[in-house]
Design brief:
The protein has 595 residues and is an alpha+beta fold. The protein is 45% helix and 14% strand. The protein is built from 19 helices and 16 strands.
Length: 595
């Protein structure tokens, strides 16, 4: 199914002129070998950029090569193949073996040039290339001292025509790769296109090095690789049990590499990459996860409210959406996730994602929505000195798990809640992104559109003991701030971790301290005293009279403690903002009347 969807995308990309020729891949060109008109001479042109700039790129012949005698590429290859420049270990002399191998590679490169020129004698520039090879001009070239063996060199005609872009060269290169990658004339039914044809023994093109993020060494990766009998069904190697014809294998990998190279169709994480595409063109839904603008989120939420049932939303827009997530294990690509769902259902899922994690900003009286990367980062360690989350502290794989939850409307990973609570207890950092994660983690069933998420703002009807304890702690902290605005060590700094796990152990002490603060407020700020004392009484009165303050809170109750704490603070901020606005308006009206 995956290869079939990729070949479908290849057809669309080819129609749009975006798909490169078969077995071509973008390469950086450091040097040009420019032939004169008849091929009797050639100039080596330095195309290396200035420091800090990137070399020019062009799509050029490519195929995965390995083994003891890797074959050359046609027209564009490294200096080791074009000019017999041997590899050299820094600080050590070039060995005779390296010199001999570089000469072998140059001869193989020359033979490939000559094979093209002889097979297409009437093609443009074929005579010049034949002369260039057969008269010894290639072998007589002097290597510039600043050139390295890994530098790419491209052949160019006297009129600045890239020879590798000639149609006859593209056809010859495709035929050369097919002859090396086919299954020794094996034929059969292709599982991708459903037609009989010549089958591949291996996938002819690999995933480009660096396309899949990895902490180790970047290298080309194979999407399908079975080179040991223990890996294959019945001990069969390579594609014996996965029959794929050459056109389907080549086009699928060309489409995948095109997606991996597109900033508009990929999302890179620390150790994985996700590419997405649709059967028909559609607006950038995937990008919304990392750039949630108010306008786009509003449209998604409107769509969600109009069609809350994912099945109904699917019928509204049946266009297909595909998403593939890849990781890397040495030289093999690992399929971490594969999604095939209608666009209408995806809109529903994304709308639910933002609805389930939004956070109420009481001071600005608005809702906040967060990029997925920010949510993943908030599960990491807070660095108070740098005033940000420590890079690299996000739990491994969590970002990918959150991505899957967003796209499928599934639950967030079970490990998130205890891990997040541990972080909050350790660094006492409670901020909107972490509250958003808690709302997601506390949702009882995200797949059921009839089940609601925890409230996004203060819920006075919520009687969960953990939630009530969080509200009480927020009011106690507000009383301390009001009475001692310059306090350096707040009760949050001292008792937050204990209060969210064993509230009965500290609430009695904190209540006594609050009484002293309230006495001070009665003297210095009667309005604050009245508001805060009433708020504290209401919070304590909500507890079950028989159960009272719980001795210990469960994991879920601890999460609700943090939620109640932050939502009480948001409600307090909203009240302050409203009071300030009314006070400013009253002052303005008085000034107008006086004027």
């Amino acid at each position: 199914m995956l290869l079939h969807r990729l070949t479908q995308y290849a057809t669309r990309a080819e129609a749009d002129g975006e798909l490169p020729p078969p077995y071509y891949r973008p390469k950086r060109i450091q040097w040009i070998l420019q032939l004169n008109e008849d091929g009797t001479a050639a100039d080596i042109v330095d195309r290396r950029p200035a420091k800090g700039e990137k070399p020019p790129e062009t799509t050029a012949p490519y195929a995965y090569r390995s083994g003891t005698m890797p074959p050359p590429y046609l027209m564009v290859d490294t200096a080791q193949y074009v000019l017999a420049l041997p590899k050299q270990t820094p600080g050590q002399p070039v060995t005779e073996r390296a010199t001999e191998e570089s000469r072998r590679r140059r001869d193989a490169y020359a033979d490939l040039l000559l094979a093209w020129a002889n097979a297409t004698p009437h093609a443009p520039y074929a005579t010049a290339v034949r002369t260039f090879v057969t008269t010894g001009v290639l072998h007589a070239l002097t290597v510039p001292p600043e050139m390295t063996a890994a530098d790419n060199i491209a052949l160019m005609a006297h009129d600045n025509t890239w020879l590798h872009r000639l149609p006859s060269v593209q056809d010859a290169w495709a035929a050369s790769v097919r002859s090396r990658k086919s299954g020794k004339n094996a034929t059969g039914l292709c599982l991708v296109c459903g037609k009989d044809g010549e089958l591949l023994s291996t996938i002819p093109e690999s995933i480009k090095s660096g396309a899949i993020p990895t902490a180790g060494r970047g290298r080309d990766a194979q999407l399908v690789s079975i080179n040991a009998s223990a890996q294959g069904r019945g001990g069969a190697l390579q594609l014996v049990n996965t029959p794929v014809c050459e056109p389907c294998g080549a086009r699928a990998m060309a489409a995948l590499n095109l997606l991996l190279a597109s900033d508009a169709n990929r999302r890179r994480a620390a150790d994985s990459v996700t590419v997405w595409w649709t059967r028909e063109p559609v607006d950038d839904l995937f990008g919304t996860l990392d750039t949630p603008t108010d306008a786009v989120v509003a449209r998604l939420l409107t769509s969600l409210h109009e069609h809350p049932d994912p099945a109904t939303a699917e019928r509204i827009d049946p266009n297909a959406y595909y998403a593939l997530t890849l990781g890397l294990n040495n030289a093999r690509a690992v399929v971490l996730d594969w999604l095939d769902l209608p666009v209408g259902r995806l809109r529903n899922h994304l709308g639910a994602w933002f609805d389930h994690h939004r956070v109420y900003d009481g001071w600005n009286h608005s809702h906040r929505y967060f990029p997925l990367w920010h949510l993943a980062l908030a599960a990491g360690r807070w660095d108070p000195k740098a005033n940000k989350y420590a890079p690299g502290s996000t739990p491994k794989g969590l970002e990918q798990e959150l991505l899957h939850a967003a796209l499928t409307r599934g639950p967030v990973p079970a490990r998130l809640l205890p891990l997040l609570l541990q972080r909050i207890r350790a660094d006492r950092r409670v901020d909107p992104p972490r509250i958003a994660l808690l709302r997601l983690a506390l949702h009882p069933n995200r797949k059921d559109h009839q089940v609601t998420a925890p409230a996004d703002r203060l819920d006075s009807t919520q009687l969960d003991p953990g939630y009530l304890c969080g509200r009480v702690f927020a009011v106690l902290e507000a009383i301390q701030y009001a009475a001692l605005p310059d306090v350096k060590a707040t009760i949050g700094d001292k008792f937050f971790g204990t209060a969210m796990t064993a509230p009965a152990a500290v609430f009695k002490t904190l209540r006594l301290g609050a009484n002293a603060h309230l006495k001070r407020l009665r003297r210095d700020n009667a309005a604050a005293h009245t508001a805060l004392s009433r708020r504290l009484a209401e919070a304590f009165a909500a507890f079950d009279p028989h159960e009272g303050i719980p001795i210990l809170l469960t994991t879920e109750q601890q999460a609700k403690f943090v939620l109640g704490y932050e939502q009480q603070r948001a409600a307090d901020f909203a009240a302050k903002a409203a009071h300030k606005k009314n006070k400013d308006q009253t002052g303005l009206d008085t000034a107008v009347e006086a004027g």
